[in-house]
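tool_log.txt
---
The assistant was asked to compare two proteins side by side. It first ran the structure predictor on the initial sequence, then on the second. Raw inputs and outputs are pasted verbatim so the downstream comparison step can read them without reformatting.
(1)
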Amino acid sequence: MNEKGAVYPYVLVFFIILQAAVVWGTGIYLSRYQTSKELANYYETKVMETLALKKILANAPDIESGPKTYPYSAGKVEYTTKPYEDPQYVILQLTTIKGNGASFTSSFLYNKNNGKIEKALN
């Protein structure tokens, strides 16, 4: 009986299982890494949007003066106003443009009488 050839199939199975585990673990790591990058990008965008809203609401009487841009280190936020059915309201449309060119748009219903945002429209 040839016992020297019996080790090869076991070693081959071991390395196939090891490669499968490495590929599976790498997939998990890449998925977590991509999720963390997307989450950081989302929060960075929302922070820029919130800071721009704070500046816009600080200039409440001048809110309908026309489109304005607020630059930040990670991009810029542009806002425009649109009329609403009820004249006491106006729609604030914020467009956040990141440094890589990606843009995100949010709209809010602004009450001109009390100077507050009533609700987010999208």
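(2)
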Amino acid sequence: MKAGEPIPCPACEGDGEVFNAIEYDDSHFRECEACDGTGAVLDPWYRRHYLALASEAGAVGWPSSYREDLTVHDRRSCEERDPREPFAWILRECGTHIISVQPDPLDKAGNTGAGLIRDCFGPGSWGDRARYYTWDGSKLREVADHKALAAWVETTAASIARARKREHDERFARVA
């Protein structure tokens, strides 16, 4: 086998994966894109957010290093979330970041997704170029910059908070 040749998936004979000797050693084979090594091919509807990220990354040609951010971490994050759930995505020359869009703080320090984007992902923050995207539950859209992305996260998180409050109030009204 030569570096870069596809490795057929033994479980489903699906897409397989590409072995890249520069990025991976022999112990780090990625699972099949189609079945994640289980043999059961997932319905594309449940993978549509990851497929949108992977397609955009391929079109842009990034990340040129730390590809595992996309192929391992973003993929896992997408598998763990409902594809209808919004999130922010940052595609950099050297990696990617998915940021949750929730009204609740992301950590014990009280950081929100919008604050994290403003404080940590501005131009030059990581020493490389970046592009900023929103996933609204159905489509990946590029936004102008980290400020526009942070504003979208704030607005979307506030909308989620209002919907939660409305549901809570309706539930409480039915009980009363």
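---
observation on (2): Residues 146-175 form the longest helix (30 residues). The longest strand covers residues 87-92.
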